[in-house]
UniProtKB/TrEMBL annotation:
One Pfam family matching this protein: PseudoU_synth_2
Keywords annotated in UniProt: Isomerase
GO molecular function, one term: pseudouridine synthase activity
Protein name: 23S rRNA pseudouridine1911/1915/1917 synthase
GO term, biological process aspect, one: enzyme-directed rRNA pseudouridine synthesis
SUPFAM superfamilies xref list: Pseudouridine synthase
Family: Belongs to the pseudouridine synthase RluA family.
Keyword Repressor attributed: no
Residue ranges of every copy of the Pseudouridine synthase RsuA/RluA-like domain listed in the record: 87-234
Top-rank taxon, per record: Bacteria
InterPro entries in the record: PsdUridine_synth_cat_dom_sf, PsdUridine_synth_RluA-like_CS, PsdUridine_synth_RsuA/RluA, RluA_PseudoU_synthase
Amino acid sequence: MYTRFDVKIPERWSGLKLYQVLEHCLPHAELSLWQKRWQDKHVLVNDLAIPWDGLVFQGQRLCYWVADYQEPSVPTDWQLVWEDDELLVVDKPALLPVSRTTRNPTQHLIGFVRDSGFADAHLLHRIDIETSGLIILGKNKKVAQYWQPRLQELLVEKIYHARVWGNPTWESQHVECRLSTVKGSDIRCQMHVVDQGGQLSITDCKVLKRFAHQSIVECRLTTGRKHQIRAQLSWLGHPIIGDKIYSLNGRFYLKRLSSELSEEDFAILGARHQQLLAYQVTLKKNGSLLTIHSSKDLQY
């Protein structure tokens, strides 16, 4: 039995050779197995076979088949916390993909929500696989198409909680900087604070709890840039516990590209996943405000 995977080539893979992209798709698969699939015409780009070392570019569609593929297990304890006639707000556990991924083509949040009785549910936005907490969905495609371009009007406030290394010297901190990827970075998706260019990124932080060597920090977003909270907290000297990119110079993110992390690695990271929770959203509909909280908490 074969499982089919479809991947739209993202910007970060654009210009790579086919075999380099395949290594990203299933990082722990032997390259020789990928070459056998390619020889058997089980790897196509835009429905065509291309050379093993041919280049692929952003927007192209990579399709491949894997025999007897078994998806990694994922947590399934998501919760519906609010709904009206148009929208759903669900509480996602950490390590559950929001939608189809190269590793989990069938087991993901949107699939579980659709299987629960909301067959045409569509995401209005996303959060990282390792982040837990609240996500808003439309009950059908038409609703999602209406609200996606109006998300800023609907989602008027979003608050995260982060468990970070260390004790900040401040009780509250207004963080305003510019974030961008940096050419030549070992981690191509990593966001860096830059002096020029990039996107203006604004967060208001407040310490909620302090422990011996850790703290819980509330992060109130004004903008919503890629990796905004993770990059800013690291820049402030208090990276999120368990963050494989923004703590410990990204060494465990780089290691995971070629091998599984060990229990010792997770002990050094402080957690198996980044300790970031989408804790609260405030929605504005029909002139009324509604604040919804996650049922989850960041336990010390």
